[in-house]
Amino acid sequence: MISALVFSLTLVHLPGFFEPNVGQFGEEVLYVARSTTGMALFTPTSAVDSSGVILELPRARGAKYVLRSRAEGTTTYSSAVFVPRYEKLARLDVAPGIDAVFTLDDNGAIQCDFIVHEDADPASLEIVYKGVDRVFLDSKGRLTIRTMMGKNVEPALRVYRIVDGRQVEVGVQPIVRRDGVVMLAVVSN
């Protein structure tokens, strides 16, 4: 399931991978994530998971994706095309000065961290879920989406700043506007 936002992988227990679309899907699809629990398709404007939940980042400028961290193995399709596998898929400029890095957690769920570059403001990020009944914060302040399949509490949103060449976590709290758009309030730097 596409979840807004998080993770760590080990090659020994790789639960899934990302791969480029080289003709195994329609031309609108740029990349695919595959895991034991499903798949997600990444298009120029969104990511769509197996249950039909659509994640959009409306402030994104263009559809610049970068595959990172080559994983072992390839996927072979009937046309004898060998497609390389990767552990991470980054989408650049999802908001001014902010990149998204998608990975798969140990259960195969897609997660996303946000990397905030110098002088960028995490509060400028907007996250939109489509194909859901409701987006809200539960009684513990956790981002939750409700679909016809039930409620799903999203992983904690993680945002990092690059400081002296290393990633430093920034404390954030999600805010859900009346129109269902998710934004972030910085609670610590």
Number of strands: 16
Biggest β-sheet strands, sense, barrel: 7 strands, mixed
Order of helices and strands: EEEEEEEEEEEEEEEE
Unreliable parts: 1-14
CA radius of gyration: 16 Å
Order of strands in the sheet with most strands: 6-7-8-9-14-15-16
Count of alpha and pi helical runs: 0
Number of individual domains:
1
Write down the overall mean pLDDT. 84
What share of residues are in beta strands?
A: over 45%
User: What is the terminal separation in angstroms?
Assistant: 30 Å
Written overview of the protein:
The chain has 189 residues and is mainly β. It has one domain (16-188). 0% of the residues lie in helices and 54% in strands. It is built from no helices and 16 strands. The strands form three sheets. It has a seven-stranded mixed sheet with strand order 6-7-8-9-14-15-16, with no helix packed on it. It has a six-stranded antiparallel sheet with strand order 1-2-3-4-5-10, with no helix packed on it. Residues 1-14 have low confidence and may be disordered.
What's the short story on this structure?
Helix content is 0%, strand content 54%. The protein has strands spanning 16-20, 31-35, 38-42, 46-49, 54-56, 65-76, 82-95, 98-104, 110-116, 128-130, 134-137, 143-147, 150-153, 158-163, 166-176, 182-188. It is globular and about 50 Å long.
